[in-house]
């Protein structure tokens, strides 16, 4: 009977330890002004991929945050979500909304030290400005798609070219 109870507690202790290990695998650096800090990707063996998301036309102060998976158990979606939540919380404390300017993210395969990680450069703006920026971006997408469809209909580009370009636009 004692052996059965000991085995039960040992098994549960291992399961709980594993769950705690997997849920606490992310790491993050403090959010800093982009002008006063270095990229978390500086000197990294795997540079990742950098993307310009929007333009800082307002000249607002840019902030940098770096979030990463320490042990390889989290996927890129989870790491990105945690980073975006940190940016939103940071700006929310100032009654503002975050808008991503640039991001750099690691790319698969996530092996041998190339764990999921992302760096986001963002600004804090009035929520109305962020909403208008998103609406303008969506409007630009539809205008571009309409132009592409017009080119396809006139025979300037093929259906295949149209589909490739459409996929690029919709993925932005």
UniProtKB/TrEMBL annotation:
Q: Which InterPro entries match?
A: SHOCT
Domain SHOCT spans what residues?
144-170
Q: Which UniProt keywords apply?
A: Signal
Q: Does the keyword Signal apply?
A: yes
The leader peptide range reads 1-28
Query: What is the protein's given name?
Result: Putative oligomerization/nucleic acid binding protein
């Amino acid at each position: 009977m004692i052996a059965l109870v000991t085995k039960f507690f040992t098994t549960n202790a291992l399961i709980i330890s594993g769950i705690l290990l997997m849920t606490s695998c992310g790491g993050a650096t403090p959010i800093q002004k982009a002008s006063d800090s270095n990229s978390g990707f500086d000197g990294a063996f795997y540079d990742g991929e950098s993307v310009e998301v929007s333009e800082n036309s307002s000249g607002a102060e840019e902030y940098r945050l770096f979030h990463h998976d320490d042990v390889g158990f989290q996927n890129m979606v989870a790491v990105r979500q945690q980073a975006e939540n940190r940016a939103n919380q940071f700006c929310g404390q100032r009654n503002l909304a975050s808008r991503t300017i640039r991001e750099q993210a690691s790319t698969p395969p996530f092996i041998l030290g190339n764990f999921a990680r992302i760096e986001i450069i963002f600004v804090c703006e009035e929520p109305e400005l962020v909403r208008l920026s998103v609406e303008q971006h969506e409007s630009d997408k539809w205008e571009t798609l309409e132009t592409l469809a017009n080119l396809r209909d006139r025979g300037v580009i093929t259906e295949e070219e149209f589909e490739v370009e459409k996929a690029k636009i919709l993925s932005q």
